[in-house]
Amino acid sequence: PDLDALAAVCTTCRACPRLVAWREASAADPPARYRGQTYWARPVPGFGDPDARVVVVGLAPAAHGANRTGRMFTGDRSGDFLFAAMHRVGMASQPTSTSADDGLTLHDVRVTAPVRCAPPANAPTPAERRTCGPWLAREIELVAPRVAVVLGGFGWQALLTTLAEQGWAVPRPRPAFGHGVEVTLRHTTQARELTLLGCYHVSQQNTFTGRLTPAMLDAVLRRARDVVR
Ligand code: DU
Ligand code: SF4
């Protein structure tokens, strides 16, 4: 219920003028294959199990993916790669994620992003990252995950900033992002631990070139499950 309320408020946000313009401009100019579809064209909230012990932190909605379907990683190639892996390791009820009403459920996992509106060139500005930070912070607080699988350096930096602000002891200098990097943080006042697992982003740039293979992603997801076990 709290997460539903958070999603309801989040989806009305218009705090970043450039991204509000881009999410709407993308909706107004779909590629041929999506012509005639009604785009979501709003902030995209987190999706999945409200009690998840594992969160997957991406970057931002894709203009013609989540910005179209209204669900994280849904309706684009990145999501195809991610949800197929989640299904192989038993985290997702089906291998595909095509629309918000396709029946997909996630088990013990939630997918979210540090920036919730589609940015031009998949590149939010530092200011946009800061502006959107409280939405991620609130979601992390409500879900209280044990593990965060962080897809790419942008999400890594954004999450560490959020966690530091929430009272987690983040080492200085900050641990650098890398595929396979594993860092366990302690909270300064609560008896909690959170393990961050770095993973190359599931974008086509990485998956088409073989920089991130299905086996590599499966291994990170399996490691996430081992940590919570
Ligand atoms: O309304 P709801 O049953 O809380 O589910 C909202 C949304 O989250 C629905 O699309 C299924 C998904 N979900 C999930 O993926 N995994 C869960 O354990 C519970 C809900
Ligand atoms: Fe609001 Fe985040 Fe979208 Fe900016 S990116 S308008 S802060 S939801």
Fold topology:
Elements: H1 2-10, H2 17-28, E1 47-48, E2 54-57, H3 66-69, H4 77-88, E3 109-112, H5 126-143, E4 147-151, H6 153-165, E5 182-186, E6 193-199, H7 204-207, H8 214-228
This protein binds 2'-deoxyuridine-5'-monophosphate and iron/sulfur cluster.
Iron/sulfur cluster (SF4) binds next to helix 2 and helix 5.
Tell me about this structure.
- The chain has 229 residues and is of the alpha/beta class.
- It has a single domain (2-228), classed as Uracil-DNA glycosylase-like domain (Uracil-DNA Glycosylase, subunit E, 3-Layer(aba) Sandwich).
- The chain has eight helices and six strands.
- Helix 5 crosses helix 6 (153-165).
- The mean pLDDT is 97.
- Bound molecules: 2'-deoxyuridine-5'-monophosphate (DU) and iron/sulfur cluster.
- 2'-deoxyuridine-5'-monophosphate (DU) is lined by residues 47-49, 105-106.
- Iron/sulfur cluster binds at residues 10, 13-16, 19-20, 43, 115-117, 128, 131-132, 135.
Bound small molecules, deduplicated:
2'-deoxyuridine-5'-monophosphate, iron/sulfur cluster
Shape: globular
CATH class: Alpha Beta
Question: How does the helix and strand content classify structurally?
Answer: alpha/beta
Number of strands: 6
Total helix count?
A: 8
Side by side, the strands of the main sheet go 1-3-2-4-6-5
* Low-pLDDT residue intervals, each spanning 5 or more residues: none
Percentage of residues in strands = 5-15%
Helix content: 25-40%
The biggest beta sheet, please? 6 strands, mixed
What is the CATH third-level topology name?
Uracil-DNA Glycosylase, subunit E
CATH superfamily: Uracil-DNA glycosylase-like domain
CATH architecture: 3-Layer(aba) Sandwich
The string of secondary-structure elements, in order, is HHEEHHEHEHEEHH
Give the CA-CA distance, first to last residue. Answer: 26 Å
Q: Give Rg in angstroms.
A: 16 Å
Quick check: average pLDDT? 97
Domain unit count: 1
